[in-house]
Design goal:
The complex is a heterodimer. Chain A is α/β, with parallel strands linked by helices. In chain A, 35% of the residues lie in helices and 15% in strands. In chain A, α5 runs parallel beside α6. Helix content of chain B is 42%, strand content 10%. Classes of the chains: A alpha/beta, B alpha/beta. At the A-B interface, β2 and α3 of A face α3 and α14 of B.
Chain lengths: 203, 432
Amino acid sequence: VSSVVATSLRVLVGDLDTDQLVSHFRPLCAEEEQPTDAILYVMLTDPYADLIGRTAVPAEPLRCLVSNLPSDAHTWSLVTLELLLRQLGHVVINLGSCPPQDLIVARCRALRPDLVVLSTLNGHGHIEGPELVRRIRLDRDLHDLHIVIGGKLNCSDNAAESNALLLSVGFDEVFDADDGLQPFIEFVHELAAARNVRPEPVL
Amino acid sequence: MFDRNQSSSPANRFAAFVKRMHGCGRLVVQPRMGFSSPEMMRAGLCATRDAHACTVGTITLDSFTRVGDHGAARRALDSGDELNGFPLVAHGTGTTNTMLAGLQGPDFPVQVRHGTALPDDIVAVLVDTYVDATEGGPVSYTLPYGRTPLDQAVASWARCSHRLVEKEGDGVTWHIETFGGCMLGQLCPPELLVALSVLEAIFFARHGLASVSLSYAQQTNAEQDAEALAALRTLAAKHLPGVEWHLVLYSWMGLFPRTAAGARRLMQESVAIARTARVERLMVKTSSEANRIPTIAENIAALEAADSMTRANPFHPVSCGDTGILDTASDLVGDVLNESEEIGKAILRAFQTGRLDVPYCVHPDNRNRARSYIDGAGWLRWSHSGAMPITVTGRCAPVSLTAAEFLAMLDYNRRRFDPVDGESPSVEPIVA
């Protein structure tokens, strides 16, 4: 199961590789009994059900803020992450694409989420990510907020330099193309598990 | 190189070139190219012009410019950070015209592409450049790309349309392409794509533009796409009297095949749909799209490959029937036009009441009640149509999707076109 997850779900990095998921799909309705427009490919088994199962009903759901960066219009990864986090049993507010920096910071202050998930694909993450996270960390009330970023973070093929930069400026985790979604799911799982021992956010 | 040396007297250079090439039986192919430096941008345009293909040029703007953050674009230029397109406003009219000097003309028109909900800054620079074609629309550049309120976008696009029309004269007329047929790029069923494309074209026509094109983006089934384009042509003819118009097909905008063979199969299907539907212009993607912004050479290779496919004989047309796309799209358009005499108001009311509702679109002004799915034959279907005048027919429409099911839909065309282990694709493409 984990190898499927590792290679198949690259939402945060914008490169989906679901070839291996195909074997988990079949037409829901047999052709002989339904017109073709009624045939939907559905999952027989969710290939990462085991991984999700561990956190499917968290004692206390995480309140997650999903967002893109100010200049990035991609939304499919945001919709997918919202579906995934809900499946994991958490609560999601989706800010959508191109949220102004002020709006992200304002929502962080107003909502005090447990986790901020930034997903970006337009290659400007290495420019906009640091600006945003520095600003959030400067806010005394938000300095210990969990903030992660993933996606296509620069305009070149080499992600290592940008990833190191983003970690150094204050992101808790940077999710890379080659690692798939498994590290993200595990990160969320650990965060949910550790939540009880963390100081409660001031509401 | 393609012979461009027979100019007519065009109303608009861009539209006239496309029309002339269509008359010669040629499909115009166009890249989606944009670079931050004027030198690279010029080199890209020169290469496009000199390609062995029937081409028009593209200047795609970067995403800082798209959201109006020209300061960030300027800082990136100053510090040598690479942007994902040409920052038109930061460069300004002078630099842009120097970049374009001697390149553009009746035989090589250039279009500026941006994706901006509030294009006032861009249009202010554009009107003084040598360019005379752009694209977008109040709905199609707003709902998918951010949080700008739809009423502000409608007002801005009306202002910008007037500004372009005011600048006409001295042999300059403007062309705008609607992006409405490309909403979100995927998972928006064709009835709604066609309706939005037509509505935005009507918007531009009513604001004085005499030359428009109507877009449609390739989805997941060639027969469905061919039928949609036929519907688009019928509705454009009905709703755009006295306006010069043509159709533009976008090659699949979602996750691109990872292999060169997959990309080629996809492009073959795009070309087959375009030829079947007698589309005048085709937006081409490259085999490297899946990984990064394509180089100039990759763009040119893709344009030349597409061009040679357009001339391939024998030509196997896509079969095209009538499953009701025209009727439904026509109902959608009619419903919106009944909302108000004023097209901008009519569109706003339609989104407020849910008579227009784009599936999976998280923009605050979209109801986001409608849902779609890909059926077993690759047809894009409605599972929920919200308050739109659309009958949902699929009996196995999903109630709710898991993340993995959703990913599989986003990945559908990849699986359809990419070979598995060097063999044929896991799902047979319709056009071999």
